[in-house]
Write a structure and sequence with these properties.
mainly alpha, 525 residues, 7 strands, globular
Length: 525
C-alpha cells in the first residue's frame, strides 16, 4: 500500500471512528439496546467456535423458544474477528471496541482494492475508501453493528470484474464465495449486496458471453465452476434453512409496512445532527417514521461527485465515442450503471418506489429497514467522487508535487465535512455498562451452569429492554439459560414479559409451550 492509503486511513479512523470508542477505550458505540444485543450474539458465536456450547441457533435467551438467533442477524462470518480478541484476553466490551476498529480497517482496505483496480490510481483510490469506511452517513448506522462488516462486498465485486475480464474460474469461485460470505456477515447486507453483484454479472455476460463460451470449450474449468456453485449453494442452505423455518412461523413484512423506511430525496440530504458542518440538515426528515434512520447524507463533496458522474455516464452512454465516453472503461460503465440502478430502486417518491418489485423477491420480504442500503451505496458514491477527482487531476497540466498538494487539500476538505461532534454522537460509558453487568453476574453466580433463570427486578427505573439485556449477558457469562430476551420481533405471547418480566407474564409465555408450566426457573430480583 502506498503512503496515501495509510495517511487517509489513519486520519479517518482517528477523526471519525475513535470518538465512538475513545482513545482511552472509554466508550461503546450506540445505546444500551442494540449494541449490547450485538455483543451478545458475537459472544455467542465465540462460545460456539470455542466449543463452550454445542448448539448455535438455540441461543440461551427467550427460553423455551427454539432457534432464537433467527430473529436477528447471526454474525457467523464476522464473529471470528471478535473471537480472536476474546481469546487474546479482552472482555466482551473491549473485544467489541477492537472488533469495530478491525472491521473498519477491513472495510477501508477492501474498498481501496476495488477502487485501485477500477481507477488505476493508488492516490484517488483512498478517496473512495474513505467515503466507504468513514462517511457521515455511517453516523446514523453506528447503533446497528450488523451493518459494520461490509468488506466482503467490494471484494466480491472485484473478483467478479476480474472474472468478466479474463474468465478465470478461480475468480468466479472467489467472487461467489465472497458474496455468500457477506450473507454470513449480515443477512441484510447480503441481500443488498446481491443486487449490484447480479447487475454486474448480467451486464458483463451480455457483452462478453462469447469469450466465456470459448473458455468453457476446453472443459478444464468446469469442475471449478461446479464445485464453487455446489459448495456455495450448500453454504446458503445451511444458513437459510433456520431462517426459513422462522419465516414460516412469524411471516414476512408487507410492502406497506416497510415502505416508510425506503429513502427519499430528503433522506440523502438529511445529515446526522452530530455533524459539525451539516447539522441543521437533519430537520429535513423530522416528520418521518424512524426519522433518525433517514439521516444518510453522505456529505456535499460525495453527493456532488455522485451527481457529476451520473451526468458524465449519461453522456458516455449516449455518445460512447465522445471525450467523456473515453473516460469510462467497460468495467467502470457496468459498475456505475449498477450503482445508479440501485439508487433508483431504493428511492421513494411520496409512497411510490421501484423497491416494490425487489420486495417480491425471495428473502427481501423479511427486511424492515431499507435505509441501510446506504451502506452499499457508499461504495458507488465514493467511487464516483474518486473517479471525478481522477478525471480532473488527469486533465490538469501541472507537476506531480502541485497535483499532490491539490489532492491533499481536497482530501482535507473531505475529512472535515465528515466530522461529527464527539458529544453529540450516540455512545455510552463502558465503565457503567461493565459495572451493571458485573453486579448481575454476582447475583446469578451461585447458579450451576445450564440452570434456567428469569431476571424479574422489583423496580425498573429505565426501559424494560435494558433489564432484559442485563439478564441475557449475565446468563451468557455464566452459561445459564435465560427466559429474558431481546429481539425486534417475537411471538405475541412474549410481549407482556418483554415489557414487564414477572411471574404472571412468564407463566403466560410458558403457556404457549405445553408441559412447560412446571419448569424449574430460578428467579432473580
Amino acid at each position: 500500500m502506498n503512503p496515501w492509503f495509510w495517511v487517509v486511513f489513519l486520519i479517518g479512523i482517528m477523526a471519525v471512528t475513535f470518538p465512538y470508542v475513545g482513545f482511552d477505550f472509554r466508550f461503546l458505540p450506540g445505546d444500551m439496546g442494540d449494541t449490547r444485543f450485538n455483543i451478545f450474539v458475537l459472544e455467542h458465536a465465540k462460545q460456539y467456535f470455542g466449543r463452550e456450547i454445542s448448539a448455535y441457533w438455540n441461543a440461551g435467551f427467550m427460553y423455551p423458544e427454539a432457534e432464537v438467533i433467527t430473529y436477528s442477524e447471526n454474525y457467523l462470518g464476522a464473529a471470528p474477528v471478535f473471537a480472536l480478541f476474546r481469546w487474546l484476553g479482552a472482555d466482551i466490551f473491549t473485544a467489541f471496541q477492537l472488533w469495530l476498529l478491525a472491521i473498519t480497517f477491513l472495510n477501508y482496505w477492501a474498498s481501496y482494492k476495488l477502487a485501485e483496480h477500477l481507477l488505476n490510481n493508488k492516490k484517488t483510490a483512498a478517496i473512495a475508501a474513505f467515503v466507504y469506511a468513514f462517511s457521515l452517513s455511517i453516523t446514523s448506522q453506528m447503533n446497528h453493528a450488523q451493518t459494520f462488516p461490509r468488506y466482503a462486498m467490494p471484494l466480491s465485486l472485484l473478483f467478479l470484474l476480474l472474472w468478466l475480464k479474463d474468465f478465470k474460474a478461480r475468480d468466479f469461485a472467489l467472487s461467489v464465495t465472497l458474496l455468500v460470505y457477506q450473507f454470513y456477515c449480515g443477512i441484510y447486507l447480503g441481500f443488498m449486496s446481491a443486487i449490484p453483484f447480479g447487475i454486474l454479472f448480467i451486464f458483463g455476460l451480455l457483452t462478453r458471453w462469447q469469450h466465456l463460451l470459448v473458455r468453457l470449450k476446453s472443459m478444464a474449468d468446469v469442475p471449478v465452476y461446479a464445485g464453487a456453485l455446489m459448495l456455495n449453494l450448500w453454504l446458503m442452505l445451511r444458513l437459510f434453512l433456520p431462517y426459513m423455518r422462522r419465516a414460516g412461523h412469524v411471516g414476512l413484512q408487507a410492502f406497506h409496512d416497510v415502505s416508510h423506511s425506503i429513502p427519499t430525496p430528503s433522506s440523502y440530504l438529511a445529515a446526522h445532527p452530530a455533524s459539525i458542518v451539516y447539522a441543521p440538515l437533519h430537520r429535513l426528515v423530522d416528520g418521518y417514521t424512524a426519522f433518525w434512520d433517514h439521516w444518510i447524507f453522505p456529505g456535499g463533496l460525495a453527493l456532488a461527485g455522485f451527481i457529476t458522474v451520473f451526468i458524465m455516464l449519461t453522456v458516455a452512454v449516449i455518445k460512447p465515442k465522445s471525450k467523456t465516453g473515453a473516460l469510462f472503461s467497460p468495467a467502470l460503465k457496468w459498475f456505475f450503471l449498477a450503482g445508479f440502478i440501485i439508487f433508483f430502486f431504493y428511492l421513494r417518491i411520496d409512497q411510490h418506489s421501484l423497491y416494490y418489485f425487489l420486495h417480491q423477491l425471495p428473502g427481501f420480504g423479511a427486511m424492515r429497514a431499507m435505509t441501510r442500503i446506504i451502506n452499499i451505496e457508499l461504495l458507488f458514491i465514493g467511487m464516483a467522487l474518486a473517479f471525478a477527482v481522477t478525471a480532473v487531476m488527469n486533465s490538469v497540466s501541472a507537476g506531480v508535487s502541485r497535483k499532490n498538494l491539490v489532492l491533499a487539500g481536497f482530501i482535507a476538505l473531505l475529512i472535515v465535512e465528515n466530522l461529527s461532534h464527539p458529544t453529540k454522537i450516540v455512545r455510552m460509558e463502558k465503565a457503567g455498562i461493565k459495572e451493571r453487568h458485573e453486579v448481575l453476574v454476582g447475583k446469578m453466580g451461585h447458579l450451576p451452569p445450564g440452570s434456567i433463570v428469569s431476571y424479574e427486578p422489583d423496580t425498573m427505573r429505565t426501559n424494560a429492554i435494558f433489564y432484559q439485556l442485563d439478564a441475557m449477558l449475565a446468563a451468557q457469562a455464566l452459561h445459564l439459560i435465560s427466559v429474558n430476551g431481546y429481539t425486534a420481533t417475537s411471538d405475541h405471547m412474549y410481549t407482556p414479559y418483554w415489557f414487564e418480566p414477572s411471574t404472571a407474564n412468564r407463566l403466560h409465555w410458558f403457556s404457549r409451550f405445553p408441559g412447560m408450566e412446571d419448569t424449574k426457573v430460578h428467579v432473580i430480583n
